[in-house]
Amino acid sequence: MDFKIKFGTDGWRGVIAEDYTYNNVRRCAQGFASYLISQGKQGARVIIGHDKRFASEFFAAAAAEVLAANGLYVHLTNRPTPTPVISYAVVARKAAGAINITASHNPPTDNGFKVRDENGGAIDPDGLKIIESLIPEDISNVKIMAYPEAEKAGLIIMFDASPEYIEHINKLIDVEPIKAAGLTVMVDAMWGNGAGWFKNLLEGGKTRVIEIHNTRNPSFPEMIRPEPIPPNINVGLQATLDNQADVLLILDGDADRVGLGDEHGTFINQLQAFGLLALYLLEIRGLRGPIVKTLSTTTMLNKLGKIYNIPVYETGVGFKYVAPKMLETDALIGGEESGGYAFRGNVPERDGILAGLYFLDFMVKTCKKPSLLLKMLFDKVGGPHYYDRIDTPFKGDRKAREDAIMASNPASIGGLKVTELVTVDGFQFRLEDGGWMLIRFSGTEPIMRVYCETTHADKVQAILQDGLKIAGIS
Question: Is residue 1 in a domain?
Fold first, then answer.
């Protein structure tokens, strides 16, 4: 039996050439093909796309050969394509789903295999378990049709997913006022799929877009990984100051997540960004509808829910939980702590490009720079909220560690009284100020994360350190 493939929060990721091999990608593709056929999707169309990581286009072609051999019609992107563009192609082309070869924000050693449903969104946990169960134990049980043969038979067609997505985006937002505003927009593409997108969408007016890290380089120089958080974004923040830009937009490796920096070269963290985007939709665009948030993101959304009299739903971490809840509730916005946000009218998928355009529109409509928009949000929710996160590798038995955390029963954390323990996903200790501390094991890496949000700036590090002690790391 070959390597056992386990699907995590958003598919499968592994180390290239160690466990992430052509044969293992083919096995995953066979599992997905068998899943689609079991759902009555014989002969259906499937989208396959990829990012700019090492050999991603070749892994995508290997997956296409397997789907074709199973009688599925593959529409394969003709170049590295942002994840939200791939997801929209599912809807635009009435496909049964998608495979995306990407490891998103993981280190350069990794690659990944994501799957999407007919809505372009993440497949729910039950569906992922079925796909995982259908992955053959070894390559001998995988059907493969050579690429030239499949292409000749019309089972693999290469296409450009960009025009359909751009037409769709222009229905969701009028970019002309942004183009005319005369902004200087710094964009850090993090060597990924988002390179060129803001420049192409906003060219032709007074607004100027300056890009950095906008070529292909799978080693991701000047950052640890293409994740839009410090220290990976420090070069972009400095470039914002050097170019006297009005805002910094940061896209992760596959452009489904966005990070923000203000005009002073200060990072606007992911929780603040989520709050700002929700405020924009509610206050500036006057829209109403539920908010879907993972429990690892901001309580500012709960406060906005009360102010605007809209429901707020909390889910486990990952879009495999967020996307189904958004569809169920017709949510206005959904998102998670990692910087991924989805919007009504679009596919139920993180979209860093649309999120960035919405933030620029927020600036234009209010004539405010990012620091003043953040003040506007804090004034609305009763003051600043402070957030931080520590990621640490862990060794030993995970179950034993989880049992110890469950039994810890702390009366206070960081000097704040614990009011509740929530175990929807990990261990979230809710605190007397309305804040929280969460201990959670990553679904994609051997990493444990400790997060917190509080209204007390001076308690952030104390909360995180107490979280590490509770988790048995000190």
Answer: no
Name the band, by pLDDT with cuts 50, 70 and 90, for residue 1: low
Domain with 235, as residue range(s), is 173-381
User: What is the pTM (predicted TM-score) of this model?
Assistant: 0.94
Whether residues 87 and 227 share a domain: the answer is: no
Q: What is the CATH number of the domain that holds 278?
A: 3.40.120.10
In a domain, 18, yes or no: yes
Report the CATH number that the domain containing residue 426 is assigned in CATH.
3.30.310.50
| Listed residues 333, 360, 381: the one ending a domain | 381
Q: Are residues 263 and 213 in the same domain?
A: yes
Q: What's the total number of domains in the chain?
A: 3
Give the span between the Cα atoms of 103 and 109, in whole angstroms: 10
Question: Do residues 462 and 374 both lie within one domain?
Answer: no
Share of the chain above pLDDT 90, in %: 90
Distance CA 357, CA 200 (A): 12
Residue 354 clears pLDDT 70, i.e. is over it = yes
Contacts with 431 (C-beta within 8 Å, 6 or more apart), sequence order: 413, 414, 416, 417, 418, 419, 437, 454, 463
Task: Answer yes or no: are the C-beta atoms of 295 and 425 closer than 8 Å.
Answer: yes
Same domain (yes/no): 360, 457: no
pLDDT digits (tens, 9 = 90+) for 20-70: 999 999 999 999 999 999 999 999 999 999 999 999 999 999 999 999 999
